[in-house]
Every structure is written in structure tokens, then in C-alpha cells.
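Sequence only, no structure available. Ideas?
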Amino acid sequence: MSLQLLLMRHGEAAFSSPDEMRELTQRGREHTLQVSRECLDSLAGIDRVYVSPYLRAKQTLQLIGSLAELPAAETYAGLTPDSDIDALIEWLQPQQGKVLLVAHNPLLSRLLSQLLGDSGHYGFDTSTMAQLTMPLAASGCAELDWIKYPR
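Reply:
I predicted one. C-alpha cells follow.
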């Protein structure tokens, strides 16, 4: 069995502190809903959902869940903006099926580049969603199925 990994960056958030408590802006909510609607077919059949402990990521997931039927999410501390990329990939290795991660940059850009085996930088604006397919989570093992940016 392979791993189909959906990556979602949280919607635009207001600037405030502490960083962990920043809330989505109206624009962030609108963009998240727009991208989620356009990716609804891909959100069907998700096996597991993991979300950053930060408020803006949890709010993003709530919006996705208002449109798509998702399993209960698990909060994972390794999905914060500056989490260790190698530790995250190691944590992902036993995962199979269809998994949704709701997290932050620069983590998601770095994860995407590493899984694709590409040293380039992928733009991962707020409310961006991407889907990758791989036999297992390891550097250079993934193929990018698509990436969807908000309009």
C-alpha cells in the first residue's frame, strides 16, 4: 500500500502574539473554503488527519471539515513552523493510505521539496493545498499529483 499525502497550509492569520494563538482573518477563512471546495474530490476517503497545535491550523481544519467528511484529527507537535524535517519524515514512514496534514511554512515547503528530492523551493502560500503520492515517506520518493493555490 502506498501513501497519498495531502498538505494544507493554514489560512492567512492576523499578526499578533503569541504566535501559537494567531487567528485566521476573514480573507484566510474565505481562501481556505475556496481551495477546499475546489479540492473536495481529493478530500474524500481521508484515513487520518494530523494538525499543528497552533490555533490558525486548527481553525483551518475546522473549515475543511465543514465541507468534507473527515476522521477525527490528532494534534501533532511536529507540525509547527520550524519543526525538524527529518524527524517529520521519519514519523511519516509507517503511514499508509490517505493522510491530511494541516500545518505551516517553512515546514511544508521544506517537506514538499525533500519528499520530491528537489532542492528547489516550492511556494506554499497560505491556504495552499498539495497532494503527493509515494510508496513510503522518504527523500525523493514522492510524485507531486497537484498543487492548488487560492485565487
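The longest strand covers residues 3-9.
Hope that gets you unstuck.
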